Amino acid sequence: xxxKIVKIAAIAAAVYFTGGAALGAVGGAAGAAGAAGGAAGGAxxxxxxxxxxxxxxxxxxxxxxxxxxxxxxxxxxxGLSGPQLLSLGGLALSGLGQFQAGQAADANAEFNAxxxxxxxxxxxxxxxxxxxxxxxxxxxxxxxxxxxxxxSGVLTSEGSPLLVQKEQAAEGEFEARKTLFAGSLESQxxxxxxxxxxxxxxxxxxxxxxxxxxxLVGAGTVLR
Length: 224
What we know:
Blueprint: H1 2-41, H2 44-78, H3 82-151, H4 159-199, H5 204-222
Helix pairs in contact: 1-2, 3-4, 3-5
């Protein structure tokens, strides 16, 4: 079986690599014959006819080589039994299924990565919004304290009243920054998960290589 495959490859290589050279050589010989005929007989028509005949012969030789390739390929397939053909067909379908499964897994990994990247952005935005709400509420609370102090006749710009205001403002800012920090941690965690999801992708080339390897290994067992 391997001898037939080698034969096909050899014929194809011969036609591919020497076909042009053979045509050139035959054409050159035909031209030389035409020139010689013209010089000897003084008839240019004889030289032209010789060139046409030479080109026709080279074309026929090329067709003969291509026919040999086709006959060898047909013989290779004809030499396989029914069970072998069925097994090879099953291997092809199995390889295609393996490739498509790999592509589907890659698509799912990419989908998960995009969701995790979206969650990372949402975590940051949510933390920023919550922190801003905390700061707004803190400013309102400090303003209410200052208003109550002023209403009671206390000087709000110094002493204990001012210290109370600063403490409330500091507590509010601490809560806002804590919210931002938690949002940053969640965003980084989602970003890491997105990178991990993408690292699990095999890629189209790797999927094709894996499927092709499975087919070749199986074919080697079938044709043994």
